[in-house]
Amino acid sequence: MTASQADDSELAAGGLRLRIDGAVATITLARPERRNAMTPSTWRGLAAIGASLPPDVRVVVLRGAGPSFCAGIDLRLFTPEGVPGEEPVASAADPDFEQHVAGYQAGYLWLRNPDIVSIAAVHGHAIGAGFQLALACDLRILADDAQFCMKEPALGLVPDLTGTKPLVDIVGLSRAIELCLTARMVSAAEAVLLRLAELVVPAAELDDAVRDLVGALLATDAAAARATKALLAHASGATLAEQAAAERQAQARLLRSRLADG
Ligand code: CAA
Q1: Is 123 helix (H, G, I), strand (E, B) or coil?
Q2: Which residue has the least CA distance to atom 36 on ligand 1?
Q3: Cβ neighbour number for residue 86 with a 10 Å cutoff
Q4: How high is the pLDDT of residue 5?
Q5: Which of 80, 221, 234, 242 is the most buried (most CB within 10 A)?
Q6: CA-155 nearest atom, ligand 1
Q7: Whose CA is nearest to atom 3 of ligand 1?
Q8: What's the predicted TM-score (pTM) here?
Q9: Per residue in 210-230, pLDDT tens?
Q10: Ligand 1 pocket: which of 35, 42, 145 to mutate (most atoms within 8 A of CB)
């Protein structure tokens, strides 16, 4: 099944495929001949999927077709010719530049929604905007050939697709500075050490590993899973006392809604 509001042809224009099987949505970056390079249509397509996701979807898996997860922004957007059939990337000369970037970021932000658990299944390269997409997900399962790279500073840009906060939260400020300002590749083995991956498996076992994880996530009570993700996401910005209060309130809401349901 495909989501009705996220129109298939629009998604295809952004190099995206969407499949929804019950509680699981799988988004495939599907322009393998360009190593799944992204354009503004890709980011708008991702935002449209997030906005039209059926309420019973609990897990969203992101994956890449072909040899790489994602080679980042389509570099042809930085040439005068651009990408055929594609709107140009926002120009800084445009007074609405930041609004355009906010539109691109919307393609990433919904992946943190407490109603879902998002999983990046990464093989091959995840560069720039592609690395940031993996960082936007709650969990990252890597094939052993995966490589991350925050390339933006090397191209004279900052990472602006919501990746800087999760990167710093996960690896710490010093390592984030080192990774971004050298724009070096991070192997799957190093990604585990840096806590950028929950699991690394042989490339041939990536699909099975993702299937197992999805099964385990779906075995947990849906309402408790949603409330717990919201609680955990709140924790890092809260004091112990605030978090303890949030736990009490979340438990009361959860149990009372169950009582109300009989
Ligand atoms: N944009 C457009 N085309 C790309 C692309 C990209 N980002 N990455 C790869 N391609 C194309 C190549 O041009 C090539 O096309 P042709 O067959 O027509 O020559 C095809 O995809 C295959 O590429 P490679 O032969 O290079 O494949 P590989 O497997 O040997 O290498 C790679 C893969 C390491 C990802 C390499 O292609 C590469 O380094 N790509 C560029 C990565 C990059 O710098 N991305 C920008 C990051 S910055 C960003 O994303 C942030 C932002 O928003 C501004």
Answers
A1: coil
A2: 71
A3: 17
A4: 60
A5: 234
A6: 48
A7: 34
A8: 0.97
A9: 999 999 999 999 999 999 999
A10: 35
Starting at the edge strand that comes first in sequence, how are the strands of the sheet with 139-143 ordered?
16-21, 24-29, 59-64, 117-122, 139-143, 199-201
- Nearest CA residue ID for atom 20, ligand 1: 34
* Beta sheet of 186-187, edge-to-edge order: 125-127, 147-149, 186-187
Contact 13, 83 (CB under 8 A): no
| Ligand 1 pocket member 132 (CB < 6 A) | no
Span from the CA of 146 to the centroid of ligand 1 (angstroms): 15
From the CA of 67, give the closest atom in ligand 1.
Answer: 29
Query: Looking up tokens 């390079």, which residue turns up?
Result: 37
- pLDDT of 15 reads 97
Q: pLDDT value at position 262?
A: 81
Can you read off the two tokens belonging to residue 123?
A: 């093989």
User: Does 224 contact ligand 1 (Cβ within 6 A)?
Assistant: no
13-64 tens-digit pLDDT: 999 999 999 999 999 999 999 999 999 999 999 999 999 999 999 999 999 9
Type of residue at 34: R
The answer to whether 55 and 64 have CB atoms below 8 angstroms apart is no
List, for the chain, all residue ranges whose pLDDT scores fall below the cut of 50.
Answer: 1-4
76 ligand 1 Cβ < 6 A: yes
Q: Does the Cβ of 14 fall within 6 Å of ligand 1?
A: no
Q: How far apart are CA 140 and CA 61, in angstroms?
A: 10
CA 185, 190, 192, 193 dihedral sign is negative
Q: Tell how many helices (H) and how many strands (E) occur in the chain.
A: 10, 9
Q: Is 68 in the pocket of ligand 1 (CB under 6 A)?
A: yes
